[in-house]
UniProtKB/TrEMBL annotation:
SUPFAM superfamilies: SET domain (SSF82199). Residues 18-283 form the SET domain. This is Cytochrome c lysine N-methyltransferase.
Amino acid sequence: MECFYQWYKDHNAVVTDPNVILSKSDLADPSSGYGLYALPDITDEGKSTKDRENDEGILLRIPKNAAFDINTIDAIIHDADMYTTPAQSERTLGKVKEAFKHLMENPKTEEFLSEATILAFYFLLFHFIKEDYEIPALFRQYLDNVLVVTEINNPITRPHEYIPLYRQYPTLLGDELVILYFTSYLENELGIDIEKSEKTIRQIYAAITSRTLEIPHEISEESNDFTTSTTLVPILDFINHSSEMPWCAFDVDRKSADIILKYKNLEPFRNNNNKQELFIQYSDIIEYTSFNFTYGFVPVVPDTSVCYFNLSLQRSLLDKRTRLYYKWFNINPVIQFYKEGIHGKWKINLTHEKFIELLLPFMKDSHIDEQGSWLYNPNAYNTFAEYHSKLDPDENIEDLRTLYRSNIRADEHSAGDIMHFPQLAWTLRYSEGERNVLKKRVSKSEAIDYIKELPEDDLEDTFEAFKKFLTEYANYRDQVIVKFVESIISVEDKDQKAGRQSFLDLCQVERAVLGNIQDIQVKMILEETTKSLDNVPLPPPINVSLDEEEEDIAPEFSEGDSNTNGDEPYDEDNFTDFLDEEYSMLSLFFNR
């Protein structure tokens, strides 16, 4: 690694402070690898780095064209000076163009296309053709000395651990599909041996996704607006993360477009006679799951900082009523927790705009009988068929019933979170006056408006029902984690054991979250004035699958038939008092 560090500096006009060196990191995590350090003194001027004021505290300056984004890679590939002969340049360029053309012609490419996947494509291609084609030294040095050898312990390199427990996070499923796609593409394009090459593909892809930075670029000299590009920045990417000691920060020199590393805080370096490792923050906000999935470790946070955990509920542990409700209303079953510092307790982030949606299936209304607020219709396909037949009387009604029954059941049974139909399966029963109970099939926004108007006692009962559901889920989920962790630990494999800690650390954090659910006091939640929290995104709903898996539907929500009450004919009046109004919702669906 030291050889690459020196080679890269010498061949790319990289400027480093004389006191900045590369050395093995002192961090406890073995996968932290190398880091950049500042020496206490020894400069030409006899002053230590911490006391110098030259170049505004800049420690590292990397020319824009020595970093790798989709534009600089393309420029380097086309630069004939990067090859030993013009013939070699033309030969390699021809191969890259051909491979890229075939990539873009594949209709599946659009599903995975991003700046990061294009960077991965280039370096995977370079790796697998480097024995037969000349690759510019800048790429080959970085590929062989950094990307292929850097240890990454995240879901991409360790799917056998992460996928069984964390497949409810779409990022993991998406990365698995990218790996499958790259593997299939490279097999067809280059004839690689999948069995021998998959590990290398995972290694390079994981190294790239964990090392990229979003580098800002100004839109114009007169404006402070900027765009960002996903970029690999050699040497800068040796710097490790610390939320506790982020001494430095990277930026872009607006005059030269160079990427620079600067001191952010000089105090730790004053009166320090030992070399000091330099750190940046990979992210200002720590959300444990996304951070761990990207970088392959669980960061330590200062005791004064707020950190987050997006608890995406394991879909197979949801009771079927709740699962179907969340599907039909397109509710993402993710609960965001937060805590203040290492010793804080995990609490639900009540300020997140999506939290109230999770309460809807548990809504309690004291004016409603024991049937409850929600009525599920397992034969909602009849509603779609009836309306369709009104639009097109020539269609056979039984054929339409068969069609909608099949499509709706496919969505209900799928492993995804998305229903591709308007919400007409769930009826809200609500009171109007003291005795009059009305039925209406409502949208999510209408249901939210209703729950917001609940009396305080009913809202408390709703929270209690949600807490009961969440407590039962936490107990089951904790058992699942413990059982799975015990199963992988029991397998004696030194290679696997060495990189397993990142996964085990994440499991430990989740178990702490699950444990704090038991301590939730509903009355305290309702009275709590939550502090201002960061806007931390949730993982998206599941809309991809690694296979054609299906979920079982419990007997009370099974296939049903065209009759809902024995031999009585299907009657819309059993489910709504507002049929004409709801048909207008269907008109929007059919007129898309």
